[in-house]
Every structure is written in C-alpha cells, then in structure tokens.
Amino acid sequence: MTIAIMGAMPEEIAPILEKVGEYKTTSYAGNNYYEAQYKGLNLVIAYSKIGKVFSTLTAATLCEHFGAKKLLFSGVAGAISSDLKVGDLIVATKLAQHDLDITAFGHPFGYVPEGAVFVESDKELNSLAYEVAKEMQKPLQEGIIATGDQFVADEARKNWIGDTFGADALEMEGASVAVVCDALNVPFFILRAISDAADMDASFSFDEFLETSAVQSAAFVMNMVDKLAQK
Questions:
Q1: Does the chain have fewer CB atoms within 10 Å around its N or its C terminus?
Q2: Per-residue pLDDT of the chain (231 residues; tens, 9 = 90+)
Q3: Which residues are known to be catalytic?
Q4: At what angle do helices 10-20 and 202-230 cross, to 10 degrees?
Q5: Virtual CA dihedral for 86, 89, 90, 91, nearest 10 degrees?
Q6: Collapsing DSSP states into helix, strand and coil, what is residue 109?
Q7: CB atoms within 10 A of CB 27
Q8: Can you give the pTM of this predicted structure?
Q9: Which residues share a beta bridge with 95?
C-alpha cells in the first residue's frame, strides 16, 4: 500500500525523512517527492510549500500520480481555542476555508455551490490516532480547523474565524488537502501541533516553536504509520 505523508514546509517533513532513512527523490510538477520503503509500506513524502494552491497541487499529485491510498498531513497551526497551548496536538475532525467568501450571493462563508462549508476527515484514521496517543501517553485534542491563504496574527480576525466556523485552530493548507482527498475518495488525516496563538505575537511564537512543534507532530504521524504497517 502507498501512504502519502505531507507537510507544508521543509521543517515539517525533515524529522520524517530522518526516520525513514533511505529514500529516492523524484521531481514532478515543480516539486520534490521522496519515496521510501518502510516496514512493508510504500511511503511518498513531500512538503507542498505554503498555501492552498500549492497544497492542492501536491495532494492531487500524491493521490493521482503516486497512487496514495491514504494521506497523512503533519504540520503546525495557530490556536484559536483557549484550551490549546503551544506544543499541543490537535486532530481535525472537519475543515473549512475561512477566506472563501461569496456571501454577496447569499451563501455562508466558506461555501461554494455544489460544495460544502466543511469537509470531514477519515474517522478510522482519527480513531487510530487515539490508539497512538494512548500508547505514547500524549494528550490529543480534536476539533475544527480553518484554512486560509493568510498568516493570521490579529486577535480580531482570529476571533471572527473562531466564531464563524466554530474553529479551534487555523493554518494555511488543511482544508484544500481535505477537498482534494474527499473528491478522490482518499482517506485523509490532518494533525497539527500548536506553534502560536494566532495573535499579535504569532510571528515571534511561530519562529520560536516551529521546529519543536513540527518534530512532535512528525513523531506522532510516524507512530501512526507503524500502526498502519501492522494491519
């Protein structure tokens, strides 16, 4: 089985590449994809670059060109919920695009005709994550993640996203990956480690905690891969 592991930035997949060891690099559609054999699984690992367009392209390539049957996303996010602190892990139950706005035509924020405001993640993969969390003795939260093509470092914007979508965290790729996987019937899982509070101190916090948060998220995802290899 081919499993895709995806992040948005080099820091988010570096610990994963270190874990798998040897891999082959394939250049395709302006990006690099790292293929490895790991415990009987074919892994394809990539970082998309930041934003919805690049993450859409990368997710579609992983599914269509490399034949991924499941997709695991590992990365960092900003907290909206006051229950989330830097370093906490959150699994997305569903995702929405907070910057998608055709409300002028009478639609709710995040909605496009023939689409939906929210895309739900795979329940089986989410359940597997709780098994991993229990074995790691690591707290794991779940909630709604909002995605948009902007780095939110503004309290008012953060609160609006939280109120409008019921979102617990925000980032820049998850919902676009969700749309691709949903359309192609590929089960997907989105895990985010909290790197900042999406407020006026977000840029400072993000730089400071990016690598440590990404390492936590990546380690968790690789434990999920270990579980998938046993099935």
A1: C
A2: 999 999 998 988 998 999 898 999 999 999 999 999 999 999 999 999 999 999 999 999 999 999 999 999 988 889 999 999 888 999 999 999 999 999 999 999 999 999 999 999 999 999 999 999 999 999 999 999 999 999 888 889 999 999 999 999 999 999 999 999 999 999 999 999 888 665 556 555 666 676 777 778 888 999 999 999 987
A3: 12, 196
A4: 30
A5: 160
A6: coil
A7: 8
A8: 0.92
A9: 119, 145
Maximum Cα–Cα distance for the chain, whole Å? 52
Write the CB contacts of 204 (distance below 8 Å, at least 6 apart in sequence).
none
Which two tokens mark 75? 């990365």
Residue 193, token pair as written in the block = 């480690």
β partners of residue 191: 74, 91
Per-residue tokens: 198: 């999406």
C-beta of residue 147 within 8 angstroms of C-beta of residue 96: yes
User: Phi, psi at residue 105, to the nearest 5°?
Assistant: -100, 15
| DSSP code of residue 117 | S
With residues binned 3-state (H G I as helix, E B as strand, rest as coil), the percentages for the chain, rounded to 5, are: 40, 30, 30
DSSP output for 164-180: HH--SEEESSHHHHHHH
